[in-house]
Specification:
Elements (H helix, E strand, L loop, with lengths): L3 E8 L5 E5 L6 E3 L12 E9 L5 E10 L5 E8 L2 E6 L8 E2 L12 E9 L8 E10 L5 H9 L8 H9 L13 E2 L7 E3 L8 E10 L6 E11 L10 H9 L3 E3 L2 E3 L4 H7 L7 E12 L4 E12 L3 E3 H9 L4 H5 L4 H21 L9 E5 L5 E6 L4 H23 L6 E3 L5 H13 L12 H10 L6 H11 L4 E3 L23 H14 L34 H35 L6 E10 L2 E6 L5 E5 L8 E4 L4 E4 L5 E3 L3 E10 L4 E9 L3 E2 L11 H20 L8 H16 L2 H7 L3
Parallel strand pairs: 11-18, 12-19, 26-31
Antiparallel strand pairs: 1-2, 1-4, 2-3, 4-5, 6-7, 6-9, 7-8, 9-10, 13-14, 14-17, 15-16, 17-18, 20-21, 22-23, 24-25, 24-30, 25-26, 27-28, 28-29, 30-31, 31-32
Helix pairs in contact: 1-13, 2-3, 7-8, 9-11, 14-15
């Protein structure tokens, strides 16, 4: 791989970094000396100068192609009369000096946004000025304020967008109802979570019979009505520009950064009960076996007859004579019909071989100050699944409608495993002794068969995790390759235009088909900044620069996919911060847990009672060398044969919480096979550098004792030092950096 490479620098808190090449090739290690004049997020050109013993490339910086221009978030500190900002993102690697006259009205300890006025050099630190004061670190919601800036999430609407939103009418006008089917007498209802504020879908179902004899149709008529956002948000207008730039709403505990202003998302387009609303309807006929027999799309005006929660619907379905059912007696038959069509659609899902893995989702419950009160499992009932199947059906119909009309649009594509990941999965399944292989051209049903056959095993979580990790990430693209996980030949997103820009585009395309017009993606009206550069990907085009319509759709799809990942990363960052803050109150306490992942440097454990994950570093597993088996996903002790695999039960103690690094460290107290391991209070190493230095010091002491002719230290300490030295050489630092990256 020797040669020159361009890419984006991903810094490390210890000072070194890795170049993430634009072409997606292997990361290139850059020493602390090489990264002194650059910062995390800068685009660089480097030359690969050598390969290390493990075949990893190491580089030298040749040129800084582009400096990261976004403000940096951090704590303002005053040390020995010098003002500086310690970046919240430790990958920045360096503190930023701030002249006294550039601190604005901030004071020491506050969280600020600083803009660089002088970049770092080989001989000096970066210099900047405070451009925004966010507040105190303990202020409620500060973790969200930090995250939206850390991940460049747009969180303020432009003045033009706010002005346009203010001019929108408060209620429907007579002109809005033209050329629409009037469904206000149909008892459509919304079914959402208790904390939902925007209702973008309403459903209705009734039994349906058509024809006689052998060709007679018997089944259900299922209506899915989706808020008609495209009626209010037009291409090229400020509302559309801001919506495209955001591409998605971002969800945090207790707060949402919406894609559209509240007047639209929670007002005009929200299907509020007993209010007239504009919608796009997918009207479907589903037969008794759950197959989609026919469908049609049309614009309509509807009136939601009730706002149900999942809990209420589940209670009604469980007891049609109970108190919840008695409150809405006239709507109970329609809910039962919805349940009937859901069961039919579910049976068809099983026939397709769509995957249905057992996973535990959690919900963070916060107090009025935004701090975690508790973390609880999010239970899914038939009401959740009922809505999910109805939405899947509408999305499939929209994909089929667009594809059969030969129009350009965005599909939601999820591809199966690559040949490399398939081979790794096959090797893993063989080590478990499972006689369920994966073919050279795998089908979703093969994965579902493995999931079903292993659901009673104690290591079911590990197996399902490996199945999920073998597949590729879902993306938005105009090139349809099907949806592997759901086992659909064509799939798109139609059902959430309030919070997802691809859905809004799909609505516009469907409307153009109904009007017999060609929908042209007018990139000239998308007046937004160039989509952000993503590590490992070529620099994206601005839609205005794309030469063909197909290329314009590809650019927009890549932008929406990238911003979806950005939203996920920001949400995970906030949740990790909240969990670390929560666990600081439990330092020194012991908990039972399950090993959720095994790496070359330790075990990740999820606590049973708190649903929080932390790391048992490999140095906490006792005084011997553990070898990591990537195929079996296990750590095995060379001397004792002690094995740690995903799914193992352990007892741990919370030993360290790093709020800045979003890390929680555990110490192993007891496992299921070997009893008590260690109860002596020890602190986890503060950093990989300190751990390496400790190992080197131990090695020096052993060598000094050998030279002096004295007997070397015996017992657990000496064995631990030697084995830790082996571990440091064997495992290296790169693996830990990789595993710690946001997934």
């Amino acid at each position: 791989m020797l040669g020159e490479v361009e890419g984006t620098l991903q810094g490390h808190r210890d000072g070194h970094g890795f170049l993430i090449p634009d072409d997606g090739s292997s990361d290139i290690y850059l020493s602390a000396q090489e990264t002194h004049a650059v910062m995390h997020g800068d685009r660089l050109r480097v030359r690969v100068i050598r390969m290390d013993k493990r075949g990893r490339p190491e580089g030298k910086v040749l040129e800084i192609l582009e400096r990261k221009k976004r403000p940096i978030i951090g704590r303002l500190l005053l040390e020995s009369g010098i003002w500086l900002v310690a970046p919240e993102d430790k990958r920045m690697g360096q503190d930023i000096l701030v002249p006294k006259n550039a601190i604005a009205n901030a004071h020491a300890g506050q969280v600020v946004a600083v803009e660089l006025t002088e970049p770092p050099s080989l001989y000096s630190q970066p210099v900047g000025r405070v451009v925004e004061v966010l507040g105190e670190i303990d202020d409620p919601g500060m973790e969200i304020e930090i995250a939206v800036r850390k991940y460049d999430v747009p969180h303020r609407f432009s003045q033009e967008t706010l002005a346009q939103s203010a001019k929108l009418p408060e209620r429907l006008r007579a002109a809005d109802l033209k050329h629409r089917v009037d469904l206000r007498d149909v008892p459509l209802v919304t079914i959402d979570g208790e904390d939902a504020r925007d209702f973008d879908d309403a459903v209705y179902c009734e039994p349906h019979k058509q024809g006689r004899g052998k060709n007679a149709f018997t089944g259900w008529r299922l209506l899915v009505a989706i808020a008609d956002v495209s009626h209010y948000v037009k291409p090229g207008e400020p509302l559309d520009n801001d919506a495209y730039e955001r591409a998605t709403s971002v969800y945090f505990p207790r707060r949402v950064i919406p894609m559209l202003p509240e007047k639209i998302s929670n007002g005009l387009c929200s299907l509020i009960p007993y209010e007239d609303r504009l919608s796009m309807v997918c009207d479907m006929l589903v037969n008794e076996t759950g197959e989609l027999h026919a469908y049609q799309f049309y614009p309509a005006v509807i009136r939601s007859h009730e706002r149900f929660t999942y809990t209420e619907v589940a209670a009604i379905l469980g007891n049609t004579h109970g108190p919840e059912a008695s409150k809405r007696r006239e709507l109970v038959p329609h809910l039962l019909h919805l349940h009937e069509v859901y069961r039919a659609l579910l049976s068809q899902r099983a026939k397709r071989g769509a995957m249905d893995f057992e996973t535990t989702e959690t919900q963070i419950v916060c107090d009025e100050n935004g701090r975690i009160e508790k973390i609880v499992p999010r239970t899914r009932n038939d009401a959740h699944r009922l809505i999910e199947e109805a939405m899947l059906a509408a999305n499939v119909c929209s994909a089929d409608f667009i594809q059969s009309s030969k129009y350009n649009s965005l599909f939601r594509v999820h591809e199966g495993p690559t040949p490399e990941k398939r081979a790794a999965l096959q090797a893993y399944l063989r080590t478990l002794g499972l006689n369920l292989g994966i073919s050279d051209d795998p089908k979703p049903a093969e994965f579902q068969a493995i999931a079903a056959a292993t659901k009673e095993r104690p290591d079911v979580a590990q197996i399902h995790s490996m199945l999920l990790r073998s597949m590729q990430q879902a993306i938005y693209t105009p090139i349809n390759s099907g949806h592997f996980g759901l086992a659909y030949g064509a799939y798109t997103h139609f059902t959430s235009p309030i919070r997802r820009y691809p859905d809004l585009l799909v609505h516009r395309v469907i409307k153009s088909i109904l009007a017999n017009k060609h929908y042209k993606l007018d990139a000239g009206k998308m007046k937004v900044p160039t989509p952000p550069k993503r590590p490992g990907k070529a620099p994206p085009l601005n839609p205005e620069e794309a030469s063909t319509e197909a290329e314009r759709w590809e650019v927009v799809g890549a932008h929406c996919s990238a911003n979806e990942r950005r939203a996920d990363e920001a949400s995970r960052d906030v949740e990790a911060w909240l969990k670390c803050r929560y666990m600081r109150e439990h330092l020194g306490e012991e908990f039972a847990g399950t090993v959720s992942a095994v790496t070359s440097f330790g075990l990740f454990v999820q606590l049973d009672a708190l649903y929080v994950e932390g790391l048992i570093h490999i140095t906490e597993l006792g005084g011997e060398y553990y070898r990591f088996d990537e195929v079996r996903q296990e750590l095995r002790g060379e001397r004792t044969g002690m094995r740690y695999t995903t799914g193992a039960r352990v007892q741990v103690q919370v030993s360290r919480v790093d709020l800045d690094g979003r890390k929680i460290d555990f110490r192993l107290v007891r496992d299921g096979e070997d009893g008590i391991r260690s109860r002596a209070p020890r602190s986890a190493p503060a950093s990989a550098q300190e751990e390496l230095e400790r190992v080197r010091q131990s090695d020096r002491e052993i060598k000094a004792a050998a030279k002096s002719g004295k007997a070397p230290a015996k017992g657990k300490a000496a064995v631990g030092a030697k084995n830790a030295m082996k571990k440091a050489a064997k495992v290296g630092r790169h693996a830990e950096v990789k595993a710690r990256r946001p997934r």
